[in-house]
Amino acid sequence: QDRLLLTMLIAGFAGFLLLLGVAMTRFTSLPFALPQWDNLDRRMIFVFPAFGFAVWAIDGIWGLLVYRRHRVAAGLLWAGALAAQAAALIALLSITSS
What is the pLDDT of residue 59? Predict the structure, then answer.
């Protein structure tokens, strides 16, 4: 019924895919250890897409559960998931920039 809320839910999944795509494309150009992060293993950048998926799944399911009674609450959950994914994307780009 609500196109805006459905669009936000779909955009959350697209945000996860964007995080995963950025991590995959930047992975090959990274050194084996990230010296600016105390020689952190480069595979750790995949924590960001995992975080994006977890936020989308938890907020998405919770939003679907409360949608019938509290549409505004569902919208806030889904908007919060988008904001968290945007912050994760900014952090990922910051860490992987050369």
Answer: 95
